[in-house]
Amino acid sequence: MAIDTEAVKKHVRGLLIALGEDPDRPGLKDTPGRVAGMYEEVFEGINYTNHEIAQMFSAVFEEEKLNDPQSSDMVFVKGIEIFSFCEHHMALMYDMEVSVAYIPKGRIIGLSKIGRIADMVSKRLQLQERIGCDIAEIIEEVTGSSDVAVMIEGSHSCMGARGIKKPSARTYTQTLRGRFRSEPDLLQRLKS
Fold first, then answer.
1. CA–CA separation, 101 vs 108, rounded Å?
2. The pTM is what?
């Protein structure tokens, strides 16, 4: 389902009026259209299920040397920068950094696809905790590996710019699947 940009324009105009602004003044006249265009971009991921995202980025490379069930060889990508919007306040979650690890089961995904998956998942109204779960679910589907770890660190404007106003607070989440959950030494390798 595509984002209804006409409805967004109408409601942004109404929001400006509700805030006591004049939506026809020069600085705001084009704001509803700009916001609708921005929402189309930053909420693109709303248009896709996790399965559809997995299908988009499903190109894998077969690698038999990485098919040993006892192996602890892993792929680990750190420093994937994303942003998202908190579904509770529609406030920006920013300065987010994602790390993704998986233990290959004979299939490896192109490294850029891991970044693209993280990016697309973040383009939804989200919770940081769910972003990690969504990324892990998609990586599992694409690679066939149930051994996946996703760690995210981020700042939340719903906590930093309003309410308690703690702008330097950072939130850390981790999603652990398979051996990353059952074998703590694997997780420790990621942190060293």
1. 11
2. 0.94
